[in-house]
Design goal:
The chain has twelve helices and 15 strands. The protein is α/β, with parallel strands linked by helices.
């Protein structure tokens, strides 16, 4: 039995990547999914599914019961199995907030992240290797995991060739900027909104399109305050990101920390030009048109003012999609490992 352990995956980019992996495995025999009971709207057609609550006691019970039947395991939620298995085990690690301090997430969440990272290190002996999405994540893990831990760079995403219609855009799209993300602290919405207030004060009114759910009243209040000051901001809530990308000429990405930056790839594939934080994770996945200091509303304001209304080419995706390589390991156990550390 081949197991995708997706406990702790229920939202965001992790959920999108999980869906892509499950679609790539569709039709393969013996593939099972250990599912977080909180997850919704994921197509699991053809898979045997086991539901458990997202905690280590439930995972341990599952592995003690089914461990002897497992041939290969991919722990998709950053955390190795709580017990050692006879199966081949890889951990897909994709949460840089566990590796590096980001003050904006708050003291409580920083303490939780440190405790979780200690737990991952203690249980790293239960995995044969860790798979990561970029050299930035690999370098962070090298410092945090025991010496000699195998780490393989294996980024993947849903491949999509830009359609001709993606490249033919209305003239007003170049005054429209999208940021497709919920308002997690590290996504830095408050600085982006402050930049839009500055633009309004300068008599500039580009459209900012956001996708923030109703769970962030503080950010919603900041949006309303900015709009009262003249800022041109539209919050769509949950929406189809591809449709939004096609309406906007630019993707603006002020995030402070990412293990990959899936939204950058998706926007580029949909034909958007990208302006983004001047941080290493951005350059790992796309070639941005311009960058800014994500801690400075003034810096963001200056870049937006410079590009707004001007036609630009779609950002180039520079990361290589390795979905076939990951699927090959899951189904056959065969994997080349040129980037082992």
């Amino acid at each position: 039995m081949i197991l995708i352990d997706a406990v702790y995956i229920n939202a965001g980019g992790g959920k999108s990547l999980l869906q892509e992996l499950l679609l790539s495995l569709r039709g393969s025999e013996g593939v099972c999914l250990l599912r977080d009971i909180r997850i919704e709207d994921v197509d699991m057609t053809g898979l045997q599914v086991y539901d458990i609550p997202p905690n280590e006691r439930a995972r341990a019970r599952f592995y003690r019961k089914y461990g002897q039947r497992l041939k290969r395991v991919l722990c998709f939620g950053n955390v190795p199995p709580p017990i050692r298995l006879d199966a081949e085990v890889a951990v897909y690690f994709h949460n840089m907030l566990l590796c590096q301090t980001v003050p904006e997430i708050g003291l409580f969440n920083r303490i939780k992240a440190k405790i979780k990272m200690v737990y991952i290190r203690l249980n790293s002996r239960n995995a044969d290797c860790f798979l990561v999405q970029s050299s930035v994540v690999r370098q962070a893990l090298v410092r945090l995991l025991p010496s000699g831990t195998k780490i393989v760079e294996m980024p993947f995403y849903a491949p999509r060739e830009p359609r001709e219609s993606d490249m033919v855009r209305a003239n007003d799209c170049w005054c429209k900027f999208s940021f497709v993300s919920n308002a997690y602290s590290h996504k830095n919405h408050h600085t982006l909104i402050a930049a839009w207030k500055l633009l309004a004060h300068r008599g500039l009114f580009p459209e900012l399109h956001l996708t923030i759910s109703g769970h962030y009243p503080e950010i919603h209040a900041q949006i309303e305050e900015a709009k009262a000051a003249g800022a041109n901001i539209v919050n769509h809530g949950f929406t189809n990101p591809v449709s939004l990308y096609r309406q906007c000429g630019y993707q603006i990405f002020p995030s402070l920390q990412e293990s990959f930056g899936l939204g950058l790839v998706e926007a580029a594939q949909a034909g958007c030009a990208v302006i983004a934080s001047d941080l290493p994770f951005v350059y790992e996945v796309v070639r941005p048109l311009h960058t800014f200091d994500p801690h400075s509303p003034e810096s963001i304001c200056e870049v937006v003012a410079m590009v707004s209304g001007k036609q630009a080419s779609a950002a180039e995706v520079v990361v290589v999609n390795q979905t076939p390589r990951l699927v090959s390991w899951l189904l056959t156990g065969l994997i080349d490992t040129p980037t082992l550390s």
